[in-house]
Amino acid sequence: MHSHTKLGSITCRKCITLIIPLKKSTILGAALSTPPLYPLSSTSFAPKDPIDTRPERPVRKICTEQLFSAKVLDASQGLRQKKLLDLLNDMRKYTRTGKAINVGHAAFRACINFLSYTFVSEDFVESVENGEYKDIVSTLLKLSGTANVVDVFPVLKLFDPQGLQRNTTNYITMFFHRLDKLIDKRLKLREEENYVTNNDMLDTLLDISHQDSQKMDREKIKHFLLGLLVAGTDTTAFGLERAMTELLHNPKVMSKAKQELEQIIGKGNPIEESDVVKLPYLQAIIKETLRLHPPAPLLLPRKAKIDVEISGYTIPKGARVLINAWAMGRNPNIWEDAHLFLPERFLGSNIDVKGRDFELTPFGSGRRICPGSPLAIRMMHVMLGSLVNSFDWKLENNIKHDDMDLDQPLRAIPVELKSCLV
Ligand code: HEM
């Protein structure tokens, strides 16, 4: 634990970083609360009621019961399956040219498409000419991740020194304009007598708004979907890119994963969300990736509501507390061979990423646990499993797996499977 930590451009006087698992009573007992996700709330698109970035109880309830429950996600899995086939077709083009793909970019694009289909049954990216929305979405994501000096020196707000407010406002306006059009189109369709629901989130949110406009209205729907898109795209894409990197770096693991997929799914076939329970080794690969490479390494910052004691240290009331999931995942006191990528450690183990096992909390834990985790887990498994089962992979410029620079973005070439060549 450190008494003073400097993180990017935000300096906290009383900031504690935890690198040991918390006890259940501490995290769930609300001794540590989570303030809003400040990079988002500092920008002008945060609504007055910060519904998008910090779902309070009613909104969180909508998330768990109506948007991310197993039943609802099962109903919308066909929408994502379509996008999975698009992703595999895109990859197939590269097998013909032999060109390397920036796997992180491909994963990012696939995640936006998966999420936009789950949200509104349409692509945010492709359906607009000139790639305009690709620009909008990626700029929003970039801006939301940019530390804003105004957070530290509020007086600078008047001058908007980095132009973040200005840029963000423009992009948000365009994004909301697109959503407004989608909502108008959907409302019109819903008036038709034979309207059959798409099972997407927009339909669910419009149903809620129809029943209780206080709870959900057009403005809230737009902010809510934007918040989910921003929170869900980069995180999931990063996890996927790191998993592929580890597989290419560890050919034995890759080969075991291929064996499992070939046996259970059949060589070359895309996997479906319902297949995941039958693929323990693939599940272990995802857990091991999230252990070593948690996409949100410090979770969301917390604040001690009262003086609280953790492992003999007193955390004073009011202190910022960062839970360092990255350091915990690499802590040799918790994990044997902590720095090695060994998915086998999770075979036959009950440790999961659902927030109950405090040594592995890539999605956080307690009342603020990531509401999108059930969807993220499905997306990561089907994308990774299908990429591994549908292609062989080699590194750009014949680089050997031992010589890979793991800190560089992964560039790899998909190769048509031998038995699938016509
Ligand atoms: C591998 C992918 C993902 C990872 C690792 C991840 C991780 C996290 C973490 C660590 C938190 C903070 C939890 C805490 O501090 O206890 C969080 C919050 C959040 N996540 Fe995720 N997330 C992922 C994907 C998604 C997806 C796909 C969505 C939605 C579609 C999503 C929506 C959110 C939202 C809205 C919050 C804010 C909750 C709040 O403020 O209380 N996430 N996520």
TrEMBL record:
Keywords: Heme, Iron, Metal-binding, Monooxygenase, Oxidoreductase. It holds the Pfam family p450. Gene3D superfamilies: Cytochrome P450. Signal peptide: none annotated. The keyword Electron transport does not apply. The keyword Metal-binding applies. Belongs to the cytochrome P450 family. This is Geraniol 8-hydroxylase. The lineage of its organism: Eukaryota, Viridiplantae, Streptophyta, Embryophyta, Tracheophyta.
